[in-house]
Design brief:
The protein contains seven helices and no strands. By secondary structure, it is mainly alpha-helical.
């Protein structure tokens, strides 16, 4: 019982502190998505380790670590959701994400694992839960991809129309080149104002 309470709470606290240390999630969706993906991968790996653990003490320790990693995901995931939505739509987005978490996680998870346990045995029911937790990496990787596209689109809209951008260009190099062009334009306008 103590693992169920202490691990997620400590995970949320540690995840929140570490997320703040890397700059938070405001205007930093890519770093927050990478942060979330790392914790998700750790949780998935620990879930696979849970399937191979044979002792009760070892199993409880690994489950504690799994719940800790899952809790560490929460600050970044919540921040990404809130930062990705317009301010007037955040309440609806928060409600919708809570419905999805409850419907597809807390409700259907035990139901599906229980049905599998009834048909194939308790071991396969528990294994299913751990395997599916590893599959949670897929939406986290998609969130990272969308964050990179969001950053790229924000960089592109601030660049002068004369600048040639191709979709395969990465955002950092585009931003550096756009800054150089912008600086050159500012210097040229300064020369026009100062020099006769």
């Amino acid at each position: 019982g103590g693992a169920v309470v202490t691990a997620p709470v400590l995970g949320v606290v540690v995840g929140g502190v570490l997320l703040d240390r890397i700059g938070g999630y405001h205007r930093n969706l890519v770093k927050a998505s990478v942060f979330e993906l790392i914790w998700g991968a750790l949780a998935g790996i620990v879930g696979v380790v849970c399937m191979t653990t044979t002792t009760t003490t070892g199993f409880l320790c690994v489950v504690w670590l799994l719940l800790f990693c899952g809790g560490a995901i929460v600050p970044a995931a919540t921040g990404i959701i809130m930062a990705s939505i317009d301010e007037n739509k955040r309440a609806a987005a928060s409600s919708f994400s809570a419905i999805c978490f409850n419907l597809f996680g807390y409700f259907s998870g035990p139901l599906i694992c229980g049905l599998i346990a009834d048909d194939y045995g308790l071991v396969w029911g528990i294994r299913t839960a751990f395997i599916v937790s590893f599959m949670g990496i897929i939406p986290m990787a998609m969130a990272l991809r969308f964050a990179k596209l969001h950053r790229y689109n924000n960089v592109v809209k601030d660049i002068p129309a004369t600048f040639d951008i191709k979709p395969e260009d990465d955002a950092k190099s585009v931003l550096q080149e756009a800054n150089a062009i912008s600086m050159h334009e500012r210097l040229n306008s300064f020369d026009d104002e100062v020099l006769p």
